[in-house]
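thought: user wants a sequence for this fold. calling inverse folding tool.
action: design(structure=
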């Protein structure tokens, strides 16, 4: 037997090995000799012939059987990703596996906490056991009495009970389960009255009639009810729903009701969120709503063992709800019934290294392959998504108003900083508004998207500025720690006491960072309790939850925060959001900068006035009349999207074309450009449907000592672009590119 194995190497090929043992399923992990070392591989094909001479084929060293093979559906999805992103199948497969499964040593499976009888075990008759097998009989009888037993409970039965347990597991009579009892899914309170079949309409009415026992489940608003009714009416097929709801419109409640319907049908649900650290609230809400099927989380902050355990619980079908970040999109879910992508526009769904996939797009493909619905939720959908909804490929569901009755959207005003004197970046009207909230006992957020003290240290005498030696960025001064740091490569050095160039002792700090705003506010509002929340202050483990709690508990008057705080948090007493300065994005060279700015400002604005108290947003800008700000003030995403899409169409940008970048980097720009020019020459006449642009330095030219440039290719036809990339990639692989590292980025988000 020849096993064709995918290995975690940057080569777009499978490797042939021989195997003499029993049949091996596709998706099985194996250990194979690879050069001087041994490597883990995944069996991609099983055949009986090889193009290699028989004496060159090495034997598989070992077939791992501790865990079931990668299921067919995931294999198919990963093959799609490998083809679509033009990334080697091996690396694509390994990208999707928990780290523990990528290692050459056998897996040490996390010990299961609980054990229960399997279907076969329940049929087993204790009387058939040999009379001498007393402990086995006792264990079997005990397991028949209860739903499940803890490992310690079993051990307490008898010293030889663990051995009996092991024997039962081998017989297939006992299986592991992660949750004690695992009673059959209880209909949750919201579904009462609807138990003879999923009838969302009925359920909504029951809700409005106020017959629900649990007061935490609100009756749906008419818009929510419409969305739930529509989605739940089409759970049997692939559909892409775009749930467009302003912040606070109750998208989460819609998710919960659709999840409930899917769970009742015995399905599993995959919920993707941009950053799990920022969404403990979502996890809590799922946990509170579905106590019998608590969500399992899958993200990169988990320890290897935890991640493996959760991955396997999902694969076995035990976990009904999986809540995770982008990597969770590859989790095996045998009963997948629904995928939800929350904040679908968020750039962190796109992986920016290795397999450069978009988890949102992969989620849509996965839903299609599995023939299940996918819900994309956002207050500010990606323009690609919005365009798909306009074109009828996705179905738009709108929640135009806040769910809490009486909660109005925040009023947005602009402070023209072209006309006002600023005190360390803060204007008088903003300071006055802050004082007003403090006097009323309400909270404020000052949003500034730059951490550190000041973005540049400068010498007024000779013009020296703190530039990073290895990047084209500036070193940011972190005054509290007395360090100069590069936010791109991690360079970290002491703040010099004198100008390194001319010796001048009087260096100037230019611009604002969170630390400086914090310091200024401490000086100007001496009685206020001020808290800075950014990646630096949240670095320590559990620091962020502790700070969030402080805010919730009303121990803070003014929060100075970055985007770390902009997402998903719901602070009841926060009524004012001040935005320090966001003008940079208005003259950025990146055609998506405006889209991102709008989304970000909508999101921070959404922090103001979530409950009974009305909210206000004050944005400091030099361009108060800019159309983007005007649309923002009207809370008019559709209007903004329409004008952006018109511009994109005019300029022939996505979504009106499909793009890919050939990214290259090397210590010297000359080499990079040389490679890219050679790559451009590999384009043939036959590729007429594809436009290849000139090599262009990246927006951030130097990072960590490497110079970066790219070649943009685009086409009005996705199929034509794909066909081109497939051929081109093969030709690129044949190119001489010694010192140059290159990669293809399909549907790039960063330039
Ligand atoms: P979104 O995710 O759209 O920002 P959430 O789902 O977080 O909105 O809901 C915002 C707030 O509105 C939450 O406090 C939530 O409990 C509340 N809420 C949601 N739906 C309803 C409803 N039907 N009736 C009353 N309050 C609701
Ligand atoms: Zn100087
Ligand atoms: Zn740097």
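)
observation: tool returned 751 residues.
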């Amino acid at each position: 037997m020849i096993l064709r194995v995918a290995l975690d190497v940057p080569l777009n090929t499978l490797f042939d090995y021989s195997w003499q043992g029993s049949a091996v399923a596709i998706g099985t992990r194996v250990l194979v000799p690879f050069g001087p070392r041994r490597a883990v591989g995944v069996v991609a094909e099983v055949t009986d012939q090889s193009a290699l001479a028989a004496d060159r084929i090495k034997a598989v060293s070992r077939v791992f059987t501790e865990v079931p093979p990668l299921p067919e559906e995931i294999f198919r999805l990963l093959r799609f990703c490998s083809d679509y992103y033009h990334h080697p199948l091996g690396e694509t497969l390994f990208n999707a596996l928990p780290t523990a499964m990528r290692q050459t040593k056998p897996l040490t499976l996390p010990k299961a906490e609980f054990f229960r009888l399997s279907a076969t075990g329940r049929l087993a008759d204790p009387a058939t056991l040999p009379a001498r097998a007393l402990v086995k009989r006792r264990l079997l009888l005990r397991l028949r009495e209860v739903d499940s037993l803890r490992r310690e409970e079993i051990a307490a039965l008898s010293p030889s009970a663990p051995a009996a347990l092991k024997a039962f597991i081998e017989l297939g009579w006992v299986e592991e389960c992660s949750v004690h009892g695992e009673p059959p899914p209880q209909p949750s309170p919201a579904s009462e009255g609807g138990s003879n079949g999923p009838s969302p309409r009925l359920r909504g009415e029951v809700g409005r009639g106020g017959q629900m026992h649990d007061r935490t489940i609100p009756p749906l608003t008419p818009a929510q009810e419409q969305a739930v009714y529509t989605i739940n009416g089409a759970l049997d097929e692939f559909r892409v729903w775009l749930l467009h709801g302003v912040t606070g419109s109750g998208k989460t409640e819609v998710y919960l009701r659709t999840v409930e319907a899917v769970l009742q049908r015995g399905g599993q649900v995959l919920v993707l969120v941009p950053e799990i650290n920022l969404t403990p609230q979502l996890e809590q809400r799922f946990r509170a709503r579905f106590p019998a099927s608590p969500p399992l989380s899958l993200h990169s902050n988990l320890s290897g063992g935890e991640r493996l355990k959760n991955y396997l619980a999902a694969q076995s079908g035990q976990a009904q709800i999986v809540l995770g970040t982008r990597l969770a999109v590859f989790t095996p879910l045998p009963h997948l019934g629904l995928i939800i992508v929350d904040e679908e526009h968020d750039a962190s769904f796109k992986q920016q290294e290795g397999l450069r996939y978009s988890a949102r797009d992969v989620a849509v493909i996965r839903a299609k392959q599995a023939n299940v619905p996918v819900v994309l939720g956002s207050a500010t959908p990606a323009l690609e998504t919005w365009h798909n909804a306009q074109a009828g490929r996705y179905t738009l569901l709108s929640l135009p108003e806040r769910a809490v009755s009486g909660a109005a959207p925040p009023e947005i005003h602009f402070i023209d900083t072209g006309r006002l004197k600023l005190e360390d970046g803060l204007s008088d009207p903003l300071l006055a508004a802050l004082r007003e909230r403090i006097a009323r006992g309400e909270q404020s957020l000052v949003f500034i998207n730059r951490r550190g003290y000041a973005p540049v240290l400068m010498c007024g005498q000779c013009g020296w500025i703190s530039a990073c030696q290895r990047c084209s960025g500036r070193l940011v001064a972190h005054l509290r720690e007395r360090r100069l740091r590069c936010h791109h490569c991690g360079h970290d050095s002491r703040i010099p006491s004198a100008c390194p160039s001319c010796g001048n002792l009087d260096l100037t700090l230019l611009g604002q960072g969170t630390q400086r705003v914090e310091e200024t506010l401490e000086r100007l509002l001496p009685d206020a309790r001020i808290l800075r929340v950014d990646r630096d202050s949240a670095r320590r483990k559990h620091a962020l939850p502790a700070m969030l709690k402080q805010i919730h508990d009303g121990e803070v008057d003014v929060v100075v925060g970055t985007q770390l705080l902009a997402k998903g948090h719901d602070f009841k007493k926060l009524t004012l959001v001040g935005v320090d300065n966001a003008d940079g994005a208005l003259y950025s060279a990146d055609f998506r900068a405006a889209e991102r700015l709008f989304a970000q400002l909508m999101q921070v604005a959404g922090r103001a006035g979530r409950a009974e108290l009305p909210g206000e947003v004050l944005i400091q800008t030099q361009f108060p009349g800019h159309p983007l700000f005007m649309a923002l003030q009207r809370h008019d995403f559709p209007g903004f999207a329409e004008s952006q899409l018109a511009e994109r169409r005019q300029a022939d940008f996505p979504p009106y074309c499909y793009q890919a970048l050939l990214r290259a980097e090397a210590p010297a720009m000359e080499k990079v450009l040389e490679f890219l020019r050679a790559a451009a020459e590999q384009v043939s006449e036959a590729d007429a449907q594809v436009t290849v642009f000139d090599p262009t330095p990246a927006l951030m030219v130097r990072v960590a000592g490497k110079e970066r440039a790219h070649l943009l290719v685009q086409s009005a036809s996705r199929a034509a672009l794909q066909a081109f990339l497939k051929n081109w990639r093969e030709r690129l692989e044949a190119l001489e590119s010694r010192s140059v590292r290159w990669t293809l980025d399909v549907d790039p988000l960063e330039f």
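thought: summarizing for user.
answer: Here is the designed sequence. Residues 180-213 have pLDDT under 50 and may be disordered.
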